[in-house]
Amino acid sequence: MKVCVGTIVHHPEDARIMHRQIRALLEAGHEVTYVAPFTHCNVTPPPEIHAIDVPRAVGLHRGHALSAARGALRKGAKDADLLLVHDVELLFALPRRRPTTVWDVHEDLVGSLGTKAYLPEVARRMLPHLINGVERRAERRVRLILAEAAYRDRFTGNHLVVPNTTYVPATPPPLPGDNRVVYVGHLSHARGVSEMIELAHSLRPHGIRLDLIGAADATVRPMLRDAQRVGLLDWFGYVPNSHALRMAQGALAGLSLLHDVPNYRQSLPTKVIEYMARGLPVITTPLPMAASIVGRTDCGVIVPYGDVEAVTQAVLRLRDDPERRATMGARGYAEARGHYHWPDHARDFVAKLEQWAVHVPAPTVHRVVAA
Q1: Which residues form the Glycosyl transferase family domain (predicted)?
Q2: Entry pTM
Q3: Cα(69)–Cα(56) distance, rounded to whole angstroms?
């Protein structure tokens, strides 16, 4: 099977796209053409894929990237058995003649609007209606897979859920340490950057450092640079997912201090599972799914939103109790290995794409038009 995968929004090394889905397709013996912003993100494509470079869609400046994507998808999908796109924007750039087309719904698009600081207020008011219309029309024209079961409420069909699980090592990882806490993932105000910088201040007198591993929104980069410049924390910027998780191993705890915003409320933060997979106690805000798994498994500590003092005390209690750290890390690892190991889900993902590829493609209706 030949599959064309496309994104203009996500980083080419996006964990879900590159390290889970594309890797699963390659391991199953399929050919992959990958349309992605390699040059913009300074990424060298792996040799086992056919890469088509496009500009990246950033902020309000998406027209050039969308225009380039039309030609790139037409080229990439020409001989493909299946086209898999990862951005709602690409629904407007689909080739008129194309194979079976699948849209991977990564997020609650309406719920995420509040976290996009670049959007003017008038756009925040208008976009929910536009997005709802696009989603309804897309459901009639392409296949869907969903990153969360909760996304099913937005659609009428019973679509396949491909959860954001992770690769869990076959052998238990090293024990948690006692002198650093880590955060792995994108950095923004809504993901708790301000709280983490304040936490770094609180932990410094105790000899505990903070490692932040991930790209950052433009609005928070200055404060991160300032904090790093004075030695308050270490910010490593974007690091490919597999390397980032190796860097996290051996930390005292993994942080997930996301705010209570609609886009996070119905999702399980992948970082929580990734920390568990690496044997780290989790410190998380009480988002329903994160709090449920951490509380049920007793693999970490749940703290109130915005309460840096509570996070500080949780870190110090873990630092002073190595047995508790080790027990929490072991429980999290066992839970992740038993229920959130990506290869256990990859088989269903690949099998469904194979099934769709041999069927007659959905009608090649012209590009999606907003309601």
Answers
A1: 177-333
A2: 0.88
A3: 10
